Amino acid sequence: MTQIERLRSLGLFDARVPRYTSYPTAPAFSPNVGAREQACALAKLNPDEPVSVYLHIPFCERLCWFCACRTQGTASLTPVEAYIGTLERELELLAGILPKGLRMGRMHWGGGTPTILPPDLIHRLANAVKAVIAPAEGWEFSVEIDPTMVDRAKIAALAAEGMNRASIGIQDFDPKVQDAIGRIQPFYVTLNCVEDLRDAGVHSLNADLVYGLPYQDMARLDDTVSKVLDLDPDRIALFGYAHVPWVSKRQQLIRDETLPKEVERFKLAEHAARRFGDAGLRAIGIDHFAKPADTLAIAAETGHLRRNFQGYTDDTCPTLIGIGASSISKLPTGYIQNAAATPAYTRSIGDGHLAGARGHLMTAGDRLRARAIEMIMCDFRLDLGALRRDHGEIAETLQPDVAMVLRIFGNLVAATPDGFEIRPEGRALTRIIASRFDAHVPNGARYSQAS
Ligand SMILES: C[S@@+](CC[C@H](N)C(=O)[O-])C[C@H]1O[C@@H](n2cnc3c(N)ncnc32)[C@H](O)[C@@H]1O
Ligand code: SF4
């Protein structure tokens, strides 16, 4: 059996499993956990422990057809400005709940397109957050940047507010691919954006790429990879295209027959990864790459790599406060997601209460499994010894799952004295192996393919 046939027989091309940016994953959250639990947990945060903050901006001027993010198109800034007003109101509510003196170690603005905000709204929003949760010393402020929706004035405003990391949306540079995903972005526009960011003193840059897009082939992807390497980013995220038209209706504009077939898609990812490796980047987890001196690569090497809603991170902060429509908070008691639709979110905040609408309160078993899955996704291994140390004897409950993984995945997984390690040949199966430890697979949830 060839390697690809073996991976296929283990479900690589058929399994529909989560990306595990959280455990349990959002589809498993319950509507019985909401604003009340959110307020309780926020009030009890330890003011001496810095938190991470995520702000969601669910607006884009153009809606790319491939995109599965929670966002809406707008041709005018009127709804955006109204939304900033609602975020300010949410922050006022938070000010009445959070312990005094709480600081943020990190802030991330994601979307949608945060760079749809003009400079005055950037300052308004940043000031509103800082007035409630002051930045800790050495804090990091990262922003998702759409190169076609940004200019020097916006970059200057973000840099003045402390932005020191930027994540640039690229996806693919080939014109035919761009046309097929409804996202025209000439190389020079991205290059100018990168230069403007560096001129503004933002020296930590990530580039987002996607493989498996319509009309992508080896030559086109190879050319995109060369252009990306010319931009010299510190980190690269290479996401597999999640084709989920039943969730993201705009993806219905992408015809199935234009997508690379499963084996080709697999080879595209392998090829890009090889090129990044040849260029001296370290592979991080299932889909990231980083320069060896980058903190993400150092975290991976020292066992401090973590997984959060943005993907991989070196942020080990246990608490994340999500602000805005659909944002998810990770609190000591569990996960709480704000109302996903902007009107429902706006109504909650307008009525004077937090917008938590779904969530999950973690049991000891959930915490154990969450860490086990994170370990697999980050380190390609499961170490029962470490889990025993942090979670106690309950770690033994994973023994049957460990035995099952060793049995099912055979020589793609190596037994270690206290668990297992996924061999490099088996790493494409990482999400599938992680899902073996998921006790919350919701009925009827349909995820993207595992490869
Ligand atoms: C919020 S979006 C990007 C920020 C900004 N709006 C832009 O377009 O540049 C974050 C990233 O999610 C990734 N993404 C979105 N939809 C995806 C999908 N269907 N499959 C895989 N990755 C996806 C893209 O790489 C995208 O850059
Ligand atoms: S990729 Fe970015 S710009 Fe395009 S629809 Fe998604 S969030 Fe909006």
List keywords for this structure.
single chain, 451 residues, alpha/beta, Arc Repressor Mutant, subunit A, pyruvate-formate lyase- activating enzyme, 2 domains, 3-stranded antiparallel β-sheet, 15 helices, 37% helix, globular, binds S-adenosylmethionine, binds iron/sulfur cluster
Biggest beta sheet attributes: 9 strands, mixed
Query: CATH superfamily of the largest domain, called what?
Result: tm_1862 like domain
* Largest sheet, spatial ordering of strands: 9-10-8-7-6-5-4-1-13
| Cofactors and ligands | S-adenosylmethionine, iron/sulfur cluster
How many helices? The count is: 15
Write structural notes for this entry:
With 451 residues, the protein is of the alpha/beta class. It has two domains: 116 residues, Arc Repressor Mutant, subunit A; 296 residues, pyruvate-formate lyase- activating enzyme (Alpha-Beta Horseshoe), CATH 3.80.30. The chain is 37% helix and 21% strand. The protein starts with a helix and ends in a 16-residue tail after the last helix. The model has no long low-confidence stretch (mean pLDDT 96).
